[in-house]
Amino acid sequence: MGIKIVVGRSGTEMLTNEAGEVTSHLQGMFSRTIRLLEAGIKPLYVFDGKPPELKKEELAKRYSKRVDATEDLVQAVEAGNKEDIEKFSKRTVKVTKQHNEDCKRLLKLMGVPVVEAPSEAEAQCAALCKSGKVYGVASEDMDSLTFGAPRFLRHLMDPSSRKVPVMEFEVAKILEELNLNMDQFIDLCILSGCDYCDSIRGIGGQTALKLIRQHGSIEKILENINRERSLDFLNFLYTVTLVPVMEVNSRRITFLDNWPYEQARQLFKEPEVCVDDNQLEIKWTAPDEEGLISFLVNENGFNIDRVTKAIEKIKAAKNKSTQGRLESFFKPVAIPTVPIKRKGSKCVHRSPKPTPKHKMFSVEASNSSRAKIIGNMNMPILDLGSKHHTPLSRGVCFGV
Amino acid sequence: MLELRLVQGSLLKKVLEALKDLVNDANFDCSATGFSLQAMDSSHVALVALLLRSEGFEHYRCDRNLSMGMNLGNMSKMLKCAGNDDIITIKADDGSDTVTFMFESPTQDKIADFEMKLMDIDSEHLGIPEAEYHAIVRMPSAEFARICKDLSSIGDTVVISVTKEGVKFSTRGDIGTANIVCRQNTTVDKPEDATVIEMNEPVSLTFALRYMNSFTKATPLSNTVTISLSSELPVVVEYKIAEMGYVRFYLAPKIEEDEDETKP
């Protein structure tokens, strides 16, 4: 068995590229999946199911953002500002049901398995990874870590032209370096903002981490806040952060009263996922050549030569032998010597564990001289590791 | 305190040329035994092990076991500044974050000091067990380099098979196929021109030519190369460094996919 990558909600990201073109999602999906196959990776795509109740608010927000962007786009078109047109048109893209269905059909024709999550795709991905069915979860949504995906990959699906190295996170190492247990990590993520409940203004990743470290859980933090209560809350935050929090007003404090953090925590800890092997169809098969041609060329107007060439690529990739890795043969040993110089860093430079059957995925994670975790939409914004200037290849670096 | 004086400075220059394309950063380990290095390439497919034994140095002082993290590209830049006949001395103080390379011209009329910043690299050492190999091929290193270069113009991978007939290197690409067979040949004027094949069992393995070509950068270090193959192990491509040690490259083979792959 080679390595399978679960790609969570990849549909959304693909589609934002060539906005406007109806087939752009298929094009993106097609070429990127071929790229993965050629690299010896066996992808498994997971699609979102029904969103959890708690996420509805967040989804409504995204909807209104899209509406805003649509208005902005109209203005930009009127003003003729090319950059803005590009920017806003990307934001207006919405994945329709049809897009998703198209992608699923395409993948099945390519012989790539597709899994439909009962609810959140990230949660399903994490479950697949936990049960060892896949090597890692590739997504741009950091929620995957909160759902406990043991191994998480970012930038796997980035266009090759951007030359962004793939970044691998191991949740066990993150917890070790942050010195938190999984429950605390989940609380940390909720506190610094997630899809399921509003974040508290004035509390970002750093503050959240300090609060969790100091009190251990959201309950304890709230208890403390309640004891000191209302007006003292500003002072309370001040003592924790040593930064005056100007924006916390009384409205925000009352908001804490019915903050649904418990439900959010429940969603992260026991998400709705499918673990029944019989229901999960995880099988890589040969591509359906005729089906692909009729779908892409006849129905969607792709160039027949390009599609035929691509099919050849898929077939070649299937026959290609995978590159073995040294860890499958040689085991790590303790380093017998001490470094002449030792900075106070805690960088971990380690390789992923070999899979039982000597087959590893071989996308090269090249050196990134500044390992850095940068927040995206809704992840805790922890600027960790920016203190390290040591080149790292693979592994996570937390310099907290 | 560390002070290693190498009269044949060009050796170190050649060693760096052999390593720097495969590995970006690595820890050099110094002990009473010698000056050594073990490092993997970034995709963990190839590994290089270098040993320069202490006896090979004119002066070897290493008070305690030390490791020095260096960027091989930068180290190579500095060593390129040394003349081929220069004597090279590597010096480092305890707790210092630099290493000094001193180049002395043979006539002692020019002395150059290059100080390089060290790096903090946490790398993993792999334990490489001593193994009995199914087949060991010794051949002229230039010949091996030529074969790898030629084959890489046809295909991406090389199948190395050792049989009673000899050792066969073959590849396949879009334009066609290529097969090169080298037979055992010990009736030569110079012993280093011989091709010697010791075979316990026939063996056939597939490797990425890209790595093989990178290994052959070590050709200037030795006239002969030794290729050790076993079906369950990475290949070892060894270049001996006369009276000093070796550079050994390990390369994980390519593995054919199983057909029945329905269950993970």
UniProtKB/TrEMBL annotation, chain A:
Binds 2 magnesium ions per subunit. They probably participate in the reaction catalyzed by the enzyme. May bind an additional third magnesium ion after substrate binding. GO terms for biological process: base-excision repair; DNA replication, removal of RNA primer. PANTHER family: FLAP ENDONUCLEASE 1 (PTHR11081:SF9), FLAP ENDONUCLEASE FAMILY MEMBER (PTHR11081). It comes from Ficus carica (Common fig). Its main location: nucleus. Residues 1-69 form the XPG N-terminal domain. Belongs to the XPG/RAD2 endonuclease family. FEN1 subfamily. InterPro entries: 5-3_exonuclease_C_sf, Flap_endonuc, HhH2, PIN-like_dom_sf, XPG-I_dom, XPG/Rad2, XPG_CS, XPG_DNA_repair_N. This is Flap endonuclease 1. It is found in: Nucleus, Nucleolus; Nucleus, Nucleoplasm; Mitochondrion. Pfam families: XPG_I, XPG_N. HAMAP family: Fen (MF_00614). Its EC number is 3.1.-.-. GO terms for molecular function: 5'-3' exonuclease activity; 5'-flap endonuclease activity; DNA binding; magnesium ion binding. Structure-specific nuclease with 5'-flap endonuclease and 5'-3' exonuclease activities involved in DNA replication and repair. During DNA replication, cleaves the 5'-overhanging flap structure that is generated by displacement synthesis when DNA polymerase encounters the 5'-end of a downstream Okazaki fragment. It enters the flap from the 5'-end and then tracks to cleave the flap base, leaving a nick for ligation. Also involved in the long patch base excision repair (LP-BER) pathway, by cleaving within the apurinic/apyrimidinic (AP) site-terminated flap. Residues 108-180 form the XPG-I domain. GO terms for cellular component: mitochondrion; nucleolus; nucleoplasm. Its cofactor is Mg(2+). Interacts with PCNA1 and PCNA2. Three molecules of FEN1 bind to one PCNA trimer with each molecule binding to one PCNA monomer. PCNA stimulates the nuclease activity without altering cleavage specificity. Keywords: DNA damage, DNA repair, DNA replication, Endonuclease, Exonuclease, Hydrolase, Magnesium, Metal-binding, Mitochondrion, Nuclease, Nucleus, Phosphoprotein.
Automatic annotation (TrEMBL), chain B:
The keyword Transferase does not apply. It is found in: Nucleus. Pfam families: PCNA_C, PCNA_N. Keywords: DNA replication, DNA-binding, Nucleus. GO terms for molecular function: DNA binding; DNA polymerase processivity factor activity. CDD domains: PCNA. GO terms for biological process: leading strand elongation; mismatch repair; regulation of DNA replication; translesion synthesis. InterPro entries: DNA_clamp_sf (IPR046938), Pr_cel_nuc_antig (IPR000730), Pr_cel_nuc_antig_C (IPR022649), Pr_cel_nuc_antig_CS (IPR022659), Pr_cel_nuc_antig_N (IPR022648). GO terms for cellular component: PCNA complex. Gene3D superfamilies: 3.70.10.10. Its main location: nucleus. The keyword Nucleus applies. Residues 127-254 form the Proliferating cell nuclear antigen PCNA C-terminal domain. Residues 1-125 form the Proliferating cell nuclear antigen PCNA N-terminal domain. This protein is an auxiliary protein of DNA polymerase delta and is involved in the control of eukaryotic DNA replication by increasing the polymerase's processivity during elongation of the leading strand. Belongs to the PCNA family. This is DNA sliding clamp PCNA. It comes from Ficus carica.
